[in-house]
């Protein structure tokens, strides 16, 4: 039996979820900010019903908190959650890398190399927003070539929070330039087929990134 694939237009709730998610990641909505269905519906130009559905979607992703007795708010992060994200991320990415080196390593190296080249171009153009998108893409490629859908689904649990933290922590030339150098070295290690060194360097990169998140959080607490 054969069935035709159906094409369903994206709902307003899905569109609102995507826009709000992007606004959290790129900093237009600040962590811990209170938001209201009415205000968001006015800003998005839609009714409150799809906004309510969108907020429920984001709640399931851990991006907003909805308390019937209090205002709805964007997620707030602390040191313990940053440490939990760092640990979980390391487990997932290291396992994916081991699988990636066993698979089509040339294709893996090619895609990673293309992204590193674009990352360098973005920095040369002073486009940090594009750099952050490419940074995220770099790590998505690792998960992709890990060829394990469960690893990919697990990574989605933290991907948006990582994106939001990346936007806030990559606020200096030193941090971003160090990030580029680390990604370039990782690319070189794929060509050398050195999975042990790659894993070692990736662990260091993830831990350094976690430290950057901690420094950002500490600076916020001092304000």
Rounded average pLDDT = 92
CATH architecture of the largest domain: Up-down Bundle
Low-confidence stretches: none
Strand arrangement, major sheet = 1-3-2
What is the strand tally?
A: 3
Report the biggest beta sheet as strand number plus sense, adding barrel if it closes.
Answer: 3 strands, antiparallel
CATH class of the largest domain: Mainly Alpha
The portion of residues forming beta strands comes to: under 5%
Query: What portion of residues is helical?
Result: over 70%
Class from helix and strand fractions: mainly alpha
N-to-C CA distance: 63 Å
Q: Name the CATH homologous superfamily of the largest domain.
A: GntR ligand-binding domain-like
CATH topology of the largest domain: Four Helix Bundle (Hemerythrin (Met), subunit A)
The sequence of SSEs as H and E is: HEHHEEHHHHHH
Radius of gyration: 19 Å
**Number of structural units classed as domains:** 2
